Write a sequence for this structure.
């Protein structure tokens, strides 16, 4: 009788019996969610600027010459060691490129042309735009400031199809968007216990999501922030099969060691008899 075959059948049956459709389906109580509450939560959300953010900032107005000093020179990168100006003519106002980001330092400040060191850390983009427009309006009539995150990053680890970091230009990304970018959870992912790890002013914040419940849409953690990490824990089936695989590898290693020892002993015995 093939005992190994029978054992494999039992293992497969255990794996699939432990992962019922009830554990796989998302938002099982979605009908009880209030649309007005969800809309309100969506409207309130706005990502805040953090240290190490790279911001693309453009200042414009009807008078381009007046706002030119408030913008970094527009450049195009021809090679890692060569920079070329966009305009070949001097004294020609050119709309700047957002490819040159402003780096937010560890204290939340950026070094801005004309205005000098300005603190944007902790502000939303809307608040940062208003601050810069107020300061620039002392010199320029009706300035228009646009800000874009250039290096917004979230990471998804664990039981997903494509784990890793994801770099985005849009800073409005939800936990569901991040899971979708990672190719969704595998069948072994623990949907009731998804961990969010967030760095909040040097302090680690941990929050757990239950993807089978609609409460996730009302969570203040539903929308992600810069450098958030999502960890999908393997379920019991995956952990159990991993333990079996490790045990099998250990048994094979022991068996091979014993067989090697026996072969050496037999070889010595034969040579002595000769």
């Amino acid at each position: 009788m093939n005992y190994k075959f029978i054992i494999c059948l039992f293992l497969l049956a255990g794996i699939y019996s432990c992962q019922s459709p009830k554990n796989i389906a998302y938002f099982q109580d979605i009908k009880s969610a209030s649309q007005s509450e969800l809309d309100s939560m969506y409207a309130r959300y706005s990502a805040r600027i953090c240290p190490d953010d790279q911001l693309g900032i453009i200042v414009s107005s009807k008078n381009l010459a007046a706002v030119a000093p408030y913008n970094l020179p527009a450049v195009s990168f021809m090679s890692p060691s060569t920079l070329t100006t966009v305009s070949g003519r001097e004294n020609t106002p050119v709309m700047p490129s957002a490819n040159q980001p402003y780096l937010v330092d560890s204290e939340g400040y950026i070094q801005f042309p004309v205005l000098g060191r300005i603190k944007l850390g902790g502000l939303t983009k809307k608040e940062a735009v208003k601050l810069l427009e107020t300061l620039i309006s002392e010199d320029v009539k009706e300035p228009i400031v646009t800000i874009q995150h250039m290096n917004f990053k979230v990471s998804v680890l664990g039981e997903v199809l494509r784990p890793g970091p994801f770099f985005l230009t849009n800073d409005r990304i939800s936990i569901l968007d991040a899971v979708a970018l990672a190719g969704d959870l595998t069948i072994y992912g623990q949907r009731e216990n998804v961990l969010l790890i967030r760095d909040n002013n040097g302090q680690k914040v941990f929050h757990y999501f239950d993807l089978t419940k609609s409460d996730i849409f009302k969570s203040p953690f539903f929308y992600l922030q810069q450098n958030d990490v999502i960890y999908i824990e393997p379920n019991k089936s995956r952990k159990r099969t991993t333990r079996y695989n490790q045990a099998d590898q250990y048994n094979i290693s022991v068996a091979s060691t014993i067989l090697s020892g026996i072969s050496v002993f037999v070889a010595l015995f034969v040579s002595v008899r000769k």
